[in-house]
Amino acid sequence: MSRWSFVGRTDELDRLLSAVTSAEGRGLFYSGSAGIGKSRLLREGVAALPNDRYAIWSIAASATTASLPFGGLVQVLPAEQPQGLSPAGILRWALDVLQQQAAGRRIVLAIDDAHLLDQPSAALVHLVARADNATVIGTLRDGEQIPLPIRALWTDDLVDKAELSPMAPAETAGLLAEILGGPVDAGSADRLGRLSAGNPLLLRELVHAASGSEELTRTYGIWKWTGRFELAPNLTDLIDTRIGQLTPAVRAVVELVAFGEPLGLQLLNQAVDRQDVEIAEERGLITVIQHDRRTNVRLAHPLYGEIMRRRCPVSRTRRLQADLAELLERVGKRRRDDLLRVAVWRLDSGTAQDAALLLEAAGQAFSRYDVPLATRLARAALDAGGGFDAAELLATILMFADRPEEAIDVLDAVSPDPAERQRFARWLTVRGMVTYWGLSHESTVEEIAARAESLTDSADQARVRAFEAIMRLHRLDTVTALRLSQSVLDRPAASVAARELARSTVAYLQAAQGQLRSSGTAIAQVHSEAARWRADMPYLQLALELARGTRLTLAGDLAGIDAIVADEFADLAGAGDFRLGTGYLAILQAYAARLRGQSDAALRTSLGACAVLATSRVYAGLAQAERAQAAALRGDATQAAEAMAEADRTQAPGMAVLYPWLEQARGAALAAAGDLPGAVKQLTDLVDRLRTDGFAGHEVHVLYDLVRLDQAGAPVGPTCSDGSRRTVAQRLTELSERVDGDLPPLLARHARAAVSGSPTELFAVADAFAARELNVFAAEATAAVLHRLRRERPAAAGEARERLAALLNRCGLVHTPALRAGTPTLTDREWEVARLAAQGATSKAIAEKLYLSARTVENHLQRIYAKVGVTSRAELHAALRAIPGHEGGDAD
């Protein structure tokens, strides 16, 4: 792991610097809990101040100097103090010393842990703060006794005081990426962030503890944490210091909350003495929270629970869990959550005997997409005699936990007689799901179709046909899939789950065919019935999300993608390790980032999807295809090719319906590698295939990729009756009248403008793209204008250049063939300036300065190379390493 970097805290750092540098600044003290990052923030602020303008003294107060007069300022005052001065005289002398050393510069006194200052040092700090040419900044720890002169700083209005809050989730993820040297899986970052409660010190100890085992792994460059870690000594010492010594009675309160949180206050008061609860709250060990109409108790910090649970003896742990279950059963399981909590406590305490309770709890856990918990409960229900129902649920959960072989064993052990028609229908569909998607057996479709013929009950047959329909959709037998789905929807006896599964199949097909309005209506219907199908078929959510995601991506609805990535299912799937759900949502998120031009986020998120789906072949190929697109956007041909090779390797035969995404990505990878003829042929062939399959929604986007490769006027499709062929622009215009939504007409408009070469029309198209946040498309259209104007009317190219720079400022690193081809007359310098501006420079002028600075450094390097007799930095490193006692570390 690398050294911890300073991440986030931008607003806090700006406020600290403003307290020193602005005309209104009057000093600032940040307070907060231990390890929250106060000291690091103060050091970063001091480091940012120029020494030629400020006389800066940094003081780190400590308990060892707190009893010594001026011990806190020993780093800045002379070792010898004048003799015979009164206390007031010594203070005046010390202030004069600081003024002399400042030599006319403004004094900045930065005190870390100011609560540990001795009284004379605190008095001198107060005196300095009153000086006209001085500013005092510092940190304080919550809950500590503060010297009166320091407290008077803000009560006398000499400085401001602010609380430093825990790091935000995004900042925590950024800090994790810095320390680990690469991005962290979103679920892992969220769990580590919650456990550390946004405290950088605790986060560091958690990462150290996890990295010392095999619980922190890296896949496709993405770090993932299993959620388990060793209780390293540093971590336990930190928590022990916070918890302190506990009486047996108070410990009982904390232990009950640790095993039961969130625990109702009324329930807790029935189990322990109310006074002990109050003591635990006063000491900051527990916190009381009002939630709806229930008053709940939680531990004040998530790590308290980890420590208490792990240190509690097994026998007492089981007793506490059994006591909690009995308490809740005694008062009555009033909320839906209560049944699940009782079942878990019964299971963990070894007192679980009710198979029906365990089975119902397993269903609840699975409906929340908590796969690990649902697996435990369903297996316990089966072991307790839950029979076929428990086996069916367990096998289903195992399928979504990427354990299909185990699922088959469980199902085959309870294979029902075909005469048990309803049970046989359910067994047939679950076994078909496992063999088709889990084991990639395409023959499953025919097997299910044949065996469904023996079913006589209309509801049972509808369930099986709904599954057969979605399997046929995924293997690209779309005509049969649609017919079967319609037959299910036409059956009054079909269950809600069977009907909505069939409707999801129809919704997906409608989206692929360009019937986006009808698809949206069907998706809304499925979603509205969720409460009725989720208990029976929670995995139907995947079919719903695939249909909804396909519709939104083909519509170019980036705001809609943002909404579903942020909804309840995303949170539940992430918390419950439901990888198919989180993986697919990450693919959608990467797609939206890519179209916005946020290339870093697109690549990082797509890599995360690849890592999450690495053990599941259902969406693995799709994730790799999106990774290839993100890499191609950045001009990274090598990674794009690697991703396509992985897509081909991992793409499941039973997911053939996803071919448009994979083949479109293949075209992008070829273009990124410079093989434009190959890319054009790939996309042209794909257009023909999509036209044959009737996937007009996809065809629109592939045709537009041809426009981006300057093929708007190229022929495409079959020969017409007059012997001619339609051009890409003509075919897009034709489809824009058939495919729903306002994006196809815009794409067709761009194609026509590309053929005509009208700068006015291309500018209008670019503005329309930008309004939809389709920044890459907007930049490419603008680059085409710039190319034409520079060639035909150089004096008029200024507006296009400014527009292009503004659009690139919205993007990360974007390096597409359309941008390069559209501006071939841009010099290397102009491209580098644009790239620097896109990576964060606030203006073209700043980008020019950055470019000139980089060129100056490069010129110096070339002179150094010539003197040393090397031609590159690598050779310079090698030459330095060859010197005895030198490891080449200073080469940079």
Low-confidence stretches: 838-844, 887-892
Secondary-structure arrangement, i.e. CATH architecture of the domain at 10-163: 3-Layer(aba) Sandwich
Which CATH class of the domain at 10-163 applies here?
Alpha Beta
Largest sheet: 5 strands, parallel
Task: Provide the gyration radius in Å.
Answer: 33 Å
Number of helices: 45
State the end-to-end distance: 20 Å
CATH topology of the domain at 10-163: Rossmann fold
Oligomer: single chain
Structural class: alpha/beta
**Widest sheet: strand ordering:** 2-3-4-1-5
State the shape.
flat
For the secondary structure, the number of strands is 12
* CATH homologous superfamily grouping of the domain at 10-163: P-loop containing nucleotide triphosphate hydrolases
Please bin the fraction of helical residues. Answer: 55-70%
Domain HTH luxR-type: 819-884
GO molecular function: adenylate cyclase activity; ATP binding; DNA binding
Protein name: Regulatory protein, luxR family
Pfam families: AAA_16, GerE
Provide an overview of this structure:
This protein is an alpha/beta fold and 892 residues long. Among the domains are: 10-163, P-loop containing nucleotide triphosphate hydrolases (Rossmann fold, 3-Layer(aba) Sandwich); 169-230, no CATH class; 416-555, Serine Threonine Protein Phosphatase 5, Tetratricopeptide repeat, CATH 1.25.40; 556-674, Alpha Horseshoe (Serine Threonine Protein Phosphatase 5, Tetratricopeptide repeat), CATH 1.25.40; 761-840, no CATH class; 848-892, no CATH class. The chain contains 45 helices and twelve strands. Strands 2-3-4-1-5 form a five-stranded parallel sheet, sandwiched between helices. A three-stranded antiparallel sheet has the order 8-10-9. α10 crosses α14 (314-331), α19 packs antiparallel against α20 and α29 (568-575) packs across α30 (579-596). The radius of gyration is 33 Å and the shape is flat. The two termini are 20 Å apart. InterPro entries: AAA_16, P-loop_NTPase, Sig_transdc_resp-reg_C-effctor, Tscrpt_reg_LuxR_C, WH-like_DNA-bd_sf. Keywords: ATP-binding, Nucleotide-binding. This is Regulatory protein, luxR family. Pfam families: AAA_16, GerE.
